[in-house]
Design brief:
Blueprint: H1 2-26, H2 31-52, H3 58-98, H4 102-111, H5 113-124, H6 130-166, H7 178-189, H8 205-222, H9 234-247, H10 249-262, H11 271-294, H12 298-319, H13 331-337, H14 340-363, H15 384-400, H16 406-439, H17 441-445, H18 451-456, H19 459-484, H20 487-501, H21 508-518, H22 528-556, H23 558-562, H24 576-581, H25 589-605, H26 608-631, H27 638-650, H28 655-664, H29 681-689, H30 693-703, H31 709-717
């Protein structure tokens, strides 16, 4: 019983302590300023109670609730004094304005700016109770409407009178009006909300009054019944906007900016930018209503967005426009397309329009004719369709390059540009597969290809067909590499990789789009995935070209490969001059002309690098055939070797093959009248047999050949006149 009584007494003592502190705090006239002191006392009181009551009791919640109410009471009390000051100030402003004494009215506003700043801090403080914050917000609104708003309304009247006398905006402001303008404009700027405490966005009020008469003229021309208000000519409104800026540019960049920069609050502002910001709502309102009006007309919708993008680019590139306080401006087009439904509708229109244009390009009668005039003669020629597709893709880039949203740019890139590239690639794959099917060994074996069809895939016809595919692929692939290094596409790649590595929550469409671009990227560009396919198919076509040349070689030289009289030829002269002057073998004359015709075509079609590469590949194949089926299958007299030399030289064979023929053409032994430096096949053979490498190297240098010892031994073994 005794312990219970002590416990009750302790509780009563704690409650008394709590009540006495709360009463003392409530009675404080300067309670708001002393809140920090009372917060310290509150913490001490909590510590004291914790020592008395280790286990929390209702006293703790009573204390916390009581102190919270006290703080709210303090701020409410203070707010009431602010509200009273603001309302009294509003009455004074109205009184002074009625007396046309603007300076006194402005002085009232300036005297309340500190109060406004305090109210703003309260309104932004999350720790304050909702009623307190709401009261602060309502008071700020009242201040702007009944004090600042009335000051600006008074100046609006004076500005309108000034505009009328200066004939603004019909005429740009003349220097004689500058002093009066500066006086009015400085006064107007002094009524602006301090940007440091403003939670409002949009143009400065002082620029709204500058734009007001221009807005009226804009509405007359583009929102009324004037002939200039046409749904198919949105560019007229944009041109009007830009002409207005150009007409008044000197005034805006000069006197207007100078007045801004004189005031500390606006020293970093630009008169041209602020004017554009104030004028833009008119153009945006017009374009938003126009979008809805033309949304069911694909051509008009596409034209509207395209012209809007051009307008955004003009503001960015000509004036370097960026709204104050923004790091990025998404443009009027960006605001239009921020509406997901509108973006989707526009994207569908763009996709359909681009696809229609693509089909016109692909199905044109001359689509896959080689356009030799499209590039420099030193470059590989493209087809007409490749040139037109490249132009279409560049035009498409202009249509969406100004979109600020990386997600929108990426979706457009995939839905339109990459889609067309994929369609063209599929068309070329189809052409290549059709060619392969008609030239495969199986098809020929079962007789599935007519003689007429075979003529389409052999000889000069087949070569041209392959070159059309190659030229199409090569041309587009080249520009994919060029575009990948351009600033816009590099930025797109950076944005995509940044987005993929960020912690932002992405919708599935965005995730799929990012994966489609990045999963097989090698060089770090948005075109890597697409260009890999183009390059691989290009290599496949090049292989087919080389294989066609091989088949033409085999087919045209059947009779030549059967030639076996190399060891019996004796009537030919064996000197080098005779070798160079005599003609090719009878069986080779037609093949030389045929292969020459094919390479003449390739030399005109290919660029220097491509031609050199294909020529070398064919030369290696030619060397293999001659080495295996002519040299390896026959024996040669010196005269036969000389004839072989003439033949391989006429075909443009490799240096190794020409040297082999020259060695086969060596005389069997030196004649008595021969000079001391003459080399004979028998002497060379002796050096090889004796393994006299010093003499062998000297002989090779004398002959100007760099064949290996193995090659030389093999060739000498083919000489019919050596033991």
């Amino acid at each position: 019983m005794e312990a219970q009584k002590r416990n009750v007494a302790a509780r009563k003592s704690a409650v008394d302590l709590l009540n006495s502190n709360l009463e003392r705090w409530r009675a404080d006239e300067d309670i708001v300023n002393n809140i920090p002191q009372y917060q310290d006392e509150f913490k001490q009181l909590l510590t004291q109670l914790n020592q008395q009551f280790p286990i929390k009791t209702p006293i703790f919640s009573q204390l916390e609730t009581g102190f919270s109410k006290l703080v709210n009471l303090a701020y409410s009390k203070n707010l009431l004094s602010y509200v009273s000051k603001i309302r009294d100030g509003a009455k004074l402003v109205e009184k002074h304005i009625s007396a046309k004494d603007f300076e006194k009215a402005l002085a009232v506003q300036n005297g309340l700016l500190e109060t406004e700043e305090t109210l703003n801090q309260i309104s932004l403080d999350d720790s304050k109770s909702i009623p307190v914050r709401n009261t602060a917000l309502k008071t700020l609104y009242y201040f702007n409407k009944n004090i600042r708003g009335k000051l600006q309304a008074f100046l609006d009247i004076q500005f309108r009178e000034f505009f009328e006398s200066a004939e603004w905006p019909v005429k740009t402001l003349q220097p004689k009006f500058y002093p009066q303008f500066v006086l009015l404009f400085e006064k107007y700027l002094s009524t602006e909300i301090n940007p440091a405490i403003s939670t409002l966005s949009g143009p400065l009020a002082s620029f709204k009054i500058l734009v007001e008469p221009i807005d009226l003229r804009f509405k007359y021309h583009f929102e009324g019944k004037a002939v200039t208000n046409r749904v198919d000519k949105p560019e007229w409104a944009f041109h009007h906007f830009l002409n207005i800026i150009d007409s008044h540019f000197g005034f805006l960049a000069g006197p207007v900016t100078e007045v801004l920069n004189k005031l500390e609050l606006f020293a970093d502002r630009n008169g041209v930018y602020e004017f554009i910001t104030a004028f833009l709502p008119s153009i945006k309102s017009k374009m938003f209503s126009l979008f809805e009006e033309v949304s069911d007309s694909p051509n008009l919708l596409s034209h509207l967005v395209y012209e809007t993008v051009l307008f955004d680019n003009a503001l960015k590139e000509k004036y370097y426009y960026l709204p104050y306080g923004k790091k990025v401006w998404k443009g009027v087009a960006g605001e239009l397309l921020s509406n997901a439904n509108w973006f989707q509708k526009w994207l569908a229109v763009e996709t359909e329009s681009a696809t229609e244009r693509y089909l016109e390009i692909e199905t044109a009668p001359n689509a896959f004719e080689i356009d030799y005039d499209a590039v420099d003669p030193s470059e590989t020629a493209p087809t007409i369709s490749a040139v037109n597709l490249k132009d279409l893709l560049e035009t498409i880039t202009d249509h969406y390059s100004s979109l600020a949203s990386v997600r929108f740019r990426l979706r457009y890139f995939l839905a339109v540009q990459v889609n067309l590239l994929d369609k063209y690639y599929a068309r070329l794959v189809e052409s290549m597969e059709a060619f392969d099917s008609m030239t495969s060994g199986f098809t020929r074996a079962v007789g599935g290809v007519s003689k007429e069809d075979m003529q389409l895939v052999t000889g000069i016809n087949g070569l041209e067909r392959l070159c059309r595919i190659y030229g199409s692929l090569n041309y587009i692939s080249y520009f994919l590499e060029q575009w990948g290094d351009e600033e816009f596409f590099l930025q797109l790649w950076h944005d995509i990789t940044t987005l993929s590595g960020s912690k932002q929550t992405l919708d599935q469409t965005s995730k799929d789009a990012i994966k489609a671009v990045t999963q097989h990227a090698v060089e770090g560009t948005v075109f890597d995935e697409t260009n890999t396919g183009y390059k691989e198919l290009c290599n496949r076509v090049e292989n087919a070209i080389v294989n066609l040349l091989k088949r033409e070689l085999q087919h045209s030289m059947k009779e030549y490969f059967k030639k076996s009289d190399w060891a019996e030829l004796t009537e030919l002269e064996t000197s080098e001059s005779a070798v160079l002057e005599a003609g090719v073998s009878r069986q080779l004359s037609q093949p030389v002309k045929h292969i020459g015709t094919l390479f003449a075509f390739l030399e005109r079609f290919f660029g220097v690098a491509d031609y050199t590469r294909v020529r070398r590949r064919f030369t290696r194949e030619l060397e293999t055939y001659f080495w295996n089926y002519i040299i390896g299958a026959n024996r040669f007299a010196a005269a036969g070797g000389a004839q072989l030399y003439r033949d391989v030289e006429a075909l443009g064979a490799s240096k190794r093959l020409q040297q082999a023929a020259r060695l086969l053409a060596l005389p069997e032994s030196s004649s008595a009248s021969a000079s001391e430096g003459d080399v004979s096949a028998s002497a060379l053979y002796s050096a090889v047999v004796a393994a006299d490498f010093e003499r062998l190297e000297a002989t090779k240098q004398q002959l100007g050949i760099d064949l290996t010892l193995e090659d030389i031994r093999h060739l000498l073994d083919r000489r019919a006149d050596l033991a």
